[in-house]
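Sanity check

After download, print the first record. It should look like this:
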Amino acid sequence: MITGASSGLGKALAIQCASMGMHIILIALPGSSTASLARNIALQYGVSVQVFEFDLTDSQALHSHLEHITRHYNVNFLVNNAGMGGTSHLVDSTVENIDRIIQLNVRSTAMVTRLMIPYLLKNERSYIMNISSMAAFTPIAYKTVYPATKAFISSFSLGLKEEFAGTGLSVSVVYPGPMMTNSQTSRRIIGQGFKGKMGLLTATAIAKLAVHKTLAGQPAIIPGWMNRVNHLLMSLLPVEWKSRIVSREVKKEIQYA
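Expected structure tokens:
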């Protein structure tokens, strides 16, 4: 079961899982053309693909749909991919937008996980893949809320990994770097110049690595050798230094936001 499955990394994860013979459940927002994607995947890979379109921040819809899914399908692999962010001065962000980032990135991830774990544990082996970000490792000005939510996902996932050690449930967290998933994201990455492109990978490459390493039980997954080197080097710097360095580059994105 993959959330945020209509495009970008979620779509790539769906295709990767289907290519490995997995039957999949795709969750996305209404009107996101996920049904068309599902038909294409089903035809190409000969797997069953179910689609549920609803807003994960709608608590009633979330409980209702997950109750239906757990009653009719045996889920042994949960991918919490749905998320959102953005770049702007905090005072230029609406209260509603900030609240939506927190509701989707933090609350929905925690709630979906909590509701699905009892059913995942019914399987001899089951897996959770939570999508964080390289942004989780550094406080970033002009994003502020987004990296904080991704740091939550990192901590939440690694805590779950330890909590369910010794059971059949394995939890992994993925930290993707820059990814050109849509025109707006591409403009922001290009706007940062060479530094913004460091560690740049396709969604397809990230999905393939993430799925294989999750199934292998690796707790923390940083796709791309450049991102792993960057993480190592940045970990040696005081937090205020690395925050200043990253924030200076991110500020260039504002004109494209």
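If your output differs, re-run the checksum step. Summary of this record's structure: Strands lie at 2-3, 24-28, 49-53, 77-80, 126-131, 169-174, 220-221.
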